[in-house]
Amino acid sequence: MEPLQKRLVECAVKRFLAYGVRSVTMDQIAQDAGASKRTVYEIFSDKEELVKACIQYFEETRTKESTAIIADSENVLVALFKIASHHLQVFQHINPLFFQDIERFYPNLWKDCIYRNSIEKQKEIVNFLEIGIEQGFIRPDIHLAIAARVLLEQTNLALAPDIIRHSEDNRKIIFENLIINYVRGISTEASLKLLQELNQKSL
Predict the structure, then answer these.
(1) What backbone torsions phi and psi does residue 165 show, to the nearest 5 degrees?
(2) How far, CA to CA in Å, does 176 sit from each of 29, 44, 108, 137?
(3) Which residues are registered as beta bridge partners of 187?
């Protein structure tokens, strides 16, 4: 991505996350990026193309953050808690209109985003679970594809705008009920104690 294109996308993402997509104008994005409206339309043919680039940027950023957390964690359970805490905090500061506007006004982008996210994230979770099995924290007898799909759906529900509330207590309740309870079921006996300890310290 070229520097100006990246700057436009970053400025657009910042506004979209704060105010939703519909209320943000191309003029505002151009002004934030220090560019002319004409320049914006030379790079992005219309607002939908810019929104598409923003969705990709948003997804790639979340993936990079998760990958960095996993690489910096001593095991998958520690990584799980760090990733959950990080993403719950990020999503709490996103205006629900960001997702609602995309779903309502750009339905094709929304469907593509959901499909792509489901495929890619499921692959990432399978890899995550495989590492957990190697480390002795995840039961080796689980069906990886099914376990990954369930964990993905639980995570999506935990991050849903109408579920998240702006309080530390509710973040912990969301995490415990939608993520930890499932992880306990696919964890080895040896990992349950560590899971309990991490849960008491988390969020």
Answers:
(1) -130, 160
(2) 39, 42, 34, 18
(3) 138
Contacts of 165 (CB under 8 A, 6+ apart): 92, 171
Query: Which H helix or E strand runs over 13?
Result: helix 3-19
Could you report the per-residue pLDDT of 14-41, keeping only the tens digit for each?
999 999 999 999 999 999 999 999 999 9
At 137, give phi and psi (nearest 5°): -100, -25
Give me the long-range contacts of 186-191 (CB less than 8 A, separation at least 24): 186/129, 186/138, 186/139, 186/142, 186/147, 187/77, 187/137, 187/138, 187/139, 188/136, 188/137, 188/138, 188/139, 190/136, 190/137, 191/77, 191/136, 191/137, 191/138
pTM: 0.86
